[in-house]
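INFO batch 0412 | record 1 of 1 | parsing
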Amino acid sequence: MRLWLGATWIYAGWNKATDPGFLTRGSSSFIGTQLTGYSTQSPIGFAFNKMIEHSMQVGIFVMISEFAIGLATLLWVTPTVAAFGGFSMSVGLWLASSFHAHPYFLASDSAYAILWLSYLLMIRNKRKGFSMSFERRGVLRIGIIAALATAFAGVGKIFTPAAVQESAAASVKTKVMKLTSLKVGSTKNFVLANGEPVVLFRTKTGVFAYSAICTHQGCTVGYSSSSKTLACPCHGAQFDPFKAGKVVIGPAQNPLRSVKVAIDGAWVVLA
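INFO prediction complete | emitting tokens
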């Protein structure tokens, strides 16, 4: 169990460290996109509002924490703290991303939470209680684990493949909504499969859409009919949806990500 949990958490950290999109704003795998998706479907969605604003820092913290927990578990360094960290992270991921999985056994996060809890209780029985005290030698070992975790995250960037443009082609087109429910001149909000919020527009010339994730710090923008812009409620950035989503008012510097949509018969679909 110790080998499995430790290796899995190291792999989880490595997977993030080698993902070119994890810390890249606008990518479908960007941590900010994931946090925004969690906020719309998690029972504790309110807890993600501030995290979204600091998504880069959250992503780095999660990645290094996974490395640290995995290494500490394998090397038997502060095992109680490592086990409690793994248990807490698994419960957090379950509440964030897989709480609504049905049937429940499809939610791997809850299964890992039980594994970490079992491992934690095994340590308790072996040591006849919980021990989280830190001696000088223990503090030194924790420092080494922290340094190794940070180094692993850095090395992962060396093996990160160059970012490639994602293909939107699919053999089966995903239906968004019926065209009759989207009047000319109106907008509708919908959510992609990865939880990313999108704003859909219809004009006399057709339909188009943009990601509702602000390119500044990941808050969710909304359409303002008075200014005809997509405005961010967190820091005041505004984007022009009728000019390729470009920035009208900062602090954002990059335009909103365009989401490809089209009209297919009586439906608006992802193109």
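INFO post-check: The longest strand covers residues 197-203.
INFO record closed
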